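Table S2 (continued). Query chain:
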Amino acid sequence: MYQAKPALGSTVRDGTTGALGRVMGHEGPYVQLRPLAGGREWDADPARVELVDATELLSARVAVANEYSRKAMKG
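Corresponding output:
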């Protein structure tokens, strides 16, 4: 797990939920994360987040792009 506060804009995995999120801020004892596809932020325990490596980040971004593409094709 990540010991220091992750930098704003970095992508991390929330060890509690398994979800990936972009670091939007630090408020009190929490790290605010937003889903890669956008949406509502959630608070995560900084002791339970871990940085995502480049391969996993690329895979997640492709999944988001594919989701957008499927939604666009449905109209």
